[in-house]
């Protein structure tokens, strides 16, 4: 088997909100073009860790971060322009958050900011992104309609299309299905499986069946520590830490 390429490498990450430590010495190598799941009880630091990868924590007052995150071997806390970084590292949130404008304008929002103006090029981006997010067939005849008229599941796929439109390399998903019904959830899970051919995906989920179904790697977080990180099969069939075992067998959390 080919050795997997490391896309993201976290080295000794500590993060404090004021004086309260939310991440404790996280070390993790995340492989390219795989799905990595972050699991663990509420408040253990999953979202906080996810947001260190696109430097979204920088936007919060009073946050202190030590350690390094490398993407393609560049330290994103030293060498990177955050606008470029957030183009390369797209993020999808728990609650779908389309802008109150048309489906079309949502998809090309970022492309327009980045200077794309030609209509045929924008049309192309819209179709390609909506196809990649498995939404094209459902909306192709109503691209001018307000995005807020879509169902929750469609809105979430639209948000994925909006992220894909700016051609990221990494996709961060923070509990992307927790506000969705089972059918929409299934669609997003199927999509993750397809998208990993092109993108490195990291997904925070409370749903352990979901982690087991869609991820290649799983990290179990507890009280700000990455307690165990391994191939998903190993985490779920043969965890090496008692705390991981207790969590995945439902003994706490
Ligand atoms: N902006 C903030 N300011 C202060 N403390 C915060 C902030 N965001 C998160 N925290 C704290 O940091 C810790 C980790 O939170 P985080 O949201 O990363 O956990 P999580 O594992 O994603 O939880 P959940 O599964 O409930 O979303 C918690 O104790 C939380 O209260």
Describe the structure.
This protein is of the alpha/beta class. The chain has one domain: Rossmann fold, CATH 3.40.50.300. Helices cover 35% and strands 26% of the residues. The chain has helices spanning 46-52, 82-88, 103-107, 109-113, 119-132, 136-139, 152-164, 182-195, 208-214, 232-237, 242-248; strands at 6-17, 20-31, 35-39, 63-71, 74-75, 89-92, 170-174, 200-204, 217-222, 225-231. The strands form 2 sheets. A 6-stranded mixed β-sheet has the order 6-7-8-3-9-10, with helices on both faces. The chain has a 4-stranded antiparallel β-sheet with strand order 2-1-4-5, covered by helices on one side. Helix 5 (119-132) crosses helix 7 and helix 7 (152-164) runs parallel beside helix 8. The longest helix is centred in the middle third of the chain and has 14 residues, at 119-132. The model has no long low-confidence stretch (mean pLDDT 94). The structure holds adenosine-5'-triphosphate. Adenosine-5'-triphosphate is lined by residues 17, 22, 40, 42-48, 60. The site of adenosine-5'-triphosphate has 11 residues, from helix 1.
